[in-house]
């Protein structure tokens, strides 16, 4: 009886695995079918391989421009996040006195506040900021800069929290040895501790890149101009126009364009992404 | 020999003192580095995250459509009118239902995996494959799932081909759409929680299971008496993580309708309801920032309550695994 139950669970888990692999294959195949064929022949191989789906999605539906927006926003934000959070985490983990515990908690609290508590002030700051810059400072403003600003601050709590854990786990003698050799504390940080923490730093950077690549709601709320929106939002717009275009093959090509970089990153970093997500949280 | 001993004995204290002095100076230098390294992040966090969030609380007591329009203080009336609003109550209940139902499903899936995955063949591959949907953009997941359940989609086609035509459903009709959304959320999130709890299971020394086996414990008993007690802390963490994530469910709902439509009231979560109020909705209505802020506060409070509840799963005493 129990045996059979366990075998059933095992079978269900394998069915789940197969379903996931099947979904990836199904989306890939659909992206290469004509829109008619997606409905007429939902499960088979494409009769004609429609590689041009990708071309139309990329150029006609504006996913190409959106892809560039996504890449630039993600990269710039991740660089800024790391530039702010690495020194801060190191300071809290290794340099601080009595205040470092409360400071760590203060950052950690940010992780449990739902974005929605922040959404309305964010929209107001965004509007105020662009009005202020246009009226008084530069004369022009790009809402993508506002998006970057909020991407960075919203990612700080998680990044700092996980990096504090990494810096704390490094041995203290290395710092002392460096100091005895005459290295200043800042040099010790830059040339010794940062390289030592590199696995952790890479993991945090990749996790941030993944979550920002998938981010949608901030762009939806802050960027009205379609040419400045990111891939996920462009995909939603594409879907909204489906009643006029019926370009289903193109829509699936769009899904592939959004998803493929993620799957590639996952295959590349694999285990480290998974263990970074789970360990950083478990501590 | 004696010379060297006395030599070092004589020298040791002074060298020691020198080290102490330089360590003191070093400590001072390190202290001076503390604030310059911490402040940029701390100020950015304070200025653009913490203070705005607090401002959100203040705004929930106002009626406002944004910069350039008139702001009036209305006290609790945003909360009162929400409590009376059919739409808000529906989205409130749906958010709770989603968080609890999906949470229960995730718990069962994670528990079942804990029993069999520890010893399963191909465990690493299974974990990698089930984790995959969690990495994928919820918009893409929503689009794919909604297409699967489309009236002419694969699910209905397969049901027809299997001769189960009577099971074919208009899955995306208002009565069923929320169930389909919940299934989509389970699919995209489950792998993460499986991998999370399995990371705790991996930390249990194999000898515990050996002893249990020798004592004649079945696999279920091993789960009940070894795995479960030793992973309670991780289950508590997983539960609060899910509470934080589940309350915020947004993208997958939006992906079912695209930006051109508003989701039917039967499918809306609080986050969707708030989004419609922030943007003024599809019909280009006026933004209702006060109400939107109030929704954010309500969501924060639900999250806080759920986190406190999930803490209760945690064991009281700390456990050290050998």
Automatic annotation (TrEMBL), chain A:
InterPro entries hit by this protein: BP-dep_ABC_trans_perm, MetI-like, MetI-like_sf
- Give TM segment ranges: 7-29, 66-92, 104-129, 149-167, 188-213, 248-269
Q: What is its main location?
A: membrane
Q: Which SUPFAM superfamilies match?
A: MetI-like (SSF161098)
Membrane topology of this protein: Multi-pass membrane protein
Q: Which residues form the signal peptide?
A: none
Q: Does the keyword Transmembrane helix apply?
A: yes
Q: Where in the cell is it found?
A: Cell membrane
> Which keywords describe this protein according to UniProt?
Cell membrane, Membrane, Transmembrane, Transmembrane helix, Transport
Q: Which Gene3D superfamilies match?
A: MetI-like (1.10.3720.10)
Q: Where is the ABC transmembrane type-1 domain?
A: 67-269
Q: Which Pfam families match?
A: BPD_transp_1 (PF00528)
UniProt record similarity statement: Belongs to the binding-protein-dependent transport system permease family.
Protein name in UniProt: N-acetylglucosamine transport system permease protein
Automatic annotation (TrEMBL), chain B:
Membrane disposition: Multi-pass membrane protein
Question: InterPro entries from the entry?
Answer: MetI-like (IPR000515), MetI-like_sf (IPR035906), UgpAE/MalFG_permease (IPR050809)
- ABC transmembrane type-1 domain location is 92-310
- Membrane-spanning residues: 33-62, 92-117, 129-149, 176-198, 234-257, 292-309
Instruction: Kindly give the SUPFAM superfamilies that the UniProt entry links to this protein.
Output: MetI-like (SSF161098)
Query: Which keywords does the record carry?
Result: Cell membrane, Membrane, Transmembrane, Transmembrane helix, Transport
Q: Does the keyword Cell cycle apply?
A: no
Give the UniProt subcellular location, in the record's own words: Cell membrane
* Record's keyword annotation contains Cell membrane: yes
- Its family? Belongs to the binding-protein-dependent transport system permease family.
Q: What is this protein called?
A: Raffinose/stachyose/melibiose transport system permease protein
